[in-house]
Amino acid sequence: MSKPPSSPSNDAARVRLDKWLWAARFFKTRGLSSEEIDKGRIQVNGQAAKPGKEVRVGDRIDIRTGYVTRTVEVLALSGVRGPAPVAALLYRETTESVAARAMAAEQRRLAPEPALSLNQGRPSKKDRRSIERLRQPSGGQWNERWSASLDD
Question: Which pTM value belongs to this model?
Answer without folding.
Answer: 0.67
